[in-house]
Amino acid sequence: MELSKHETAPSAGSEYAGIGSRFLASLLDGIILGIPLYIIWAVCATLMIMGDLEVVRILEKNPDYVTNQEFFFVLVGFLKVMGILASISFIVYLLYFTLMESSKWQATLGKKIMGIQVVEAEGERLSFGRAAGRFLARSFLSPILLIGYILAFFTEKRQALHDLLAGTIVIKK
After folding, report:
1. pTM for the full model?
2. In this predicted model, what pLDDT tens digit does every residue of 98-133 receive, in sequence order?
3. Which of these, 28, 85, 86, 114, is most buried using a 10 Å CB contact count?
4. Number of domains comprising the chain
5. 38: containing domain
6. Is residue 30 part of a domain?
């Protein structure tokens, strides 16, 4: 049985999550997703590049005799593979954060381990759309000069830029 939005609202005494616990949760999520994705990247990149017989022929050739055209061919192939893998990784991260933060847990695995959860400013559970917006804001805006994260030190509810834009808060459970 799934809880309604009103049943997941934090109690009046809920505390806002500290910057340290939010950082550690983010670090844990990075490890949880990063290690498997790194292995998948390495295997897929190797298979995709080595699966192209023309690339293998060029790579086996003496480097002194590789033409600029052959080098460009290999480089473009490599960039295509990296673009595909980066897109897949972005989708995996988007789905992980969005599905986990809009679930009844209201937290990713890292946040769950640290005992914190993400809620709407009114204390209700995030919708899928709001969780996706929060992720996108965090991915593209907050890393710029780390200003998005630095804001959390100066806001009353310890909200980073992505929290302010999405109308969310992170609380201790």
Report:
1. 0.80
2. 999 999 999 999 999 999 999 998 888 999 999 999
3. 114
4. 1
5. 13-172
6. yes
